[in-house]
């Protein structure tokens, strides 16, 4: 599609109130991860293009590129059924996703490739040189097609489609991520002069500083940060309605990071939430969600909402409507007070999925043995443990209390 025709479509979408790609000045960005089918039900994850006409979302990170170094691997759950394998490689060639990326971009959506996920176990890179080399390789694979790519042996999973940038979703402490991310940034900034703007984002957990991503957060210029405000003590479910000072919910801490630490003074923070009660601990919706968003909008850095994930959100009737209503600002904005930066960070496990699970991997701990009639039993996905938690630790049968972090355990 010609550039003028594409932007004409985007202009029409704006007239009708649609979101049209990530905006660094907007407070109603909506990012929803696609590719892992975390609902894990028949038909719960449709092909990518199915979602792109929806006007309630504008950013889609594709999850996940979960092995960076050779052999590079991609996992898109059931969407991978429509891919084939490059000869002599374990890398997927996905012409359907190639076509869908172009369709989504013609409808104004920002399409990112998310790197990492729960199954990323490489631990980063042995040196800054290796990190830079692999950043350049990924850019050749997913950015603008390099000259003579076939003779250079570069396989492109999405063919001629060019993604709009990368999302870094590393779950565990890894080495040399700063030079890796900075080289991606360098390549994207250089290509921006060709008329297309590229986006770099990261998805830390809400405890600050984030154990896995703190070095990058201090040294890399990100366009937006999708903070995982769930499966942790500082999640949206810990928000106290009407209170200007929050003891656990710490959007204010991240706003302080944005103003005093971030390499990008205009960085946006997206409020990360689960798309259903099955998608992660601490799910909120409706009036609860509206209250949290109204509070978060009081911070300069607030840029919208991130949702995990597409299959959960679209199976949850009315959920995206409640997100859109909350972002439209139908409720009053609470003026927050300053939030002190925590002195230390807990090492926690971020929410997400693999092919067969609905939350990213956690380590189970000892569970309660059976229900006690006088004790309240926690339903599936309800909190059953964690620092500061004072509620019941016993789950409704047949569920058991599963450890996700020292701040959060839930019934699964």
Automatic annotation (TrEMBL):
Q: Which reaction does it catalyse?
A: Random endo-hydrolysis of N-acetyl-beta-D-glucosaminide (1->4)-beta-linkages in chitin and chitodextrins
| Limits of the GH18 domain | 28-330
Supply the enzyme class, top level. hydrolase
According to its UniProt record, the EC number is 3.2.1.14
Name it. chitinase
Tell me which Pfam families the record gives: CBM_1, Glyco_hydro_18
| Protein family (similarity comment) | Belongs to the glycosyl hydrolase 18 family. Chitinase class III subfamily.
Q: Sorted alphabetically, which InterPro entries does this protein's record hold? A: CBD (IPR000254), CBD_sf (IPR035971), Cts1-like (IPR045321), GH (IPR017853), Glyco_hydro18_cat (IPR001223), Glyco_hydro_18_chit_AS (IPR001579), Glycosyl_Hydrlase18_Chitinase (IPR050542)
Source organism phylogeny: Eukaryota, Fungi, Dikarya, Ascomycota, Pezizomycotina
Q: Where is the composition biased (Low complexity)?
A: 358-371
Q: Per its UniProt record, what SUPFAM superfamilies does this chain match?
A: (Trans)glycosidases, Cellulose-binding domain
């Amino acid at each position: 599609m010609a550039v003028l025709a594409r932007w004409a479509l985007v202009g029409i979408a704006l007239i009708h109130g649609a979101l049209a790609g990530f905006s660094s000045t907007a407070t109603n960005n909506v990012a929803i991860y696609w590719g892992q089918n975390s609902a894990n039900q028949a038909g719960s994850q449709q092909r990518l293009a199915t979602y792109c006409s929806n006007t309630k979302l504008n950013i889609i990170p594709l999850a996940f590129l979960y092995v960076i170094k050779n052999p590079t691997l991609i996992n898109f759950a059931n969407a991978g059924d429509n891919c084939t394998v490059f000869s002599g490689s374990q890398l997927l060639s996905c012409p359907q996703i190639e076509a869908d990326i172009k369709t989504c971009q013609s409808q104004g959506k920002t399409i990112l490739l998310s790197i990492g996920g729960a199954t990323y176990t490489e631990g980063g890179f042995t040196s800054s040189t290796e990190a830079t080399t692999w950043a350049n390789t990924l850019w050749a694979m997913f950015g603008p097609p390099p000259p003579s790519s076939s003779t250079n042996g570069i396989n492109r999973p999405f063919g001629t489609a060019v993604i709009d940038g990368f999302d870094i979703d590393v779950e565990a402490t890894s080495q040399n991520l700063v030079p890796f991310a900075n080289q991606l940034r360098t390549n994207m900034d250089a290509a921006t002069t060709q008329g297309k703007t590229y986006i770099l984002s990261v998805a830390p957990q809400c405890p600050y500083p984030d154990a896995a991503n703190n070095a990058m957060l201090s040294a890399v210029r990100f366009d937006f940060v999708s903070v995982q405000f769930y499966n942790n003590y500082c999640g949206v479910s810990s928000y106290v309605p009407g209170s200007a000072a929050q003891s656990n919910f710490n959007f204010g801490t991240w706003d302080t990071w944005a103003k005093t630490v971030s390499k990008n003074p205009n960085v946006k923070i997206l409020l990360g939430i689960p798309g259903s009660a099955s998608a992660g601990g601490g799910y909120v919706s409706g009036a609860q969600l509206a209250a949290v968003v109204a509070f978060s909008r009081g911070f300069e850095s607030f840029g919208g909402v991130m949702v995990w994930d597409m299959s959960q959100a679209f199976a949850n009737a009315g959920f995206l409507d409640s997100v859109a209503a909350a972002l439209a600002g139908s409720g009053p904005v609470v003026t927050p007070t300053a939030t002190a930066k925590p002195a230390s960070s807990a090492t926690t496990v971020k929410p997400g999925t693999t092919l067969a699970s609905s939350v990213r991997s956690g380590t189970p701990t000892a569970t309660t043995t059976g229900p006690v009639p006088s004790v309240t039993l926690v339903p599936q996905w309800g909190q059953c443990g964690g620092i500061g938690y004072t509620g019941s630790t016993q789950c409704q049968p047949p569920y058991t209390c599963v450890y996700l972090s020292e701040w959060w355990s839930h019934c699964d």
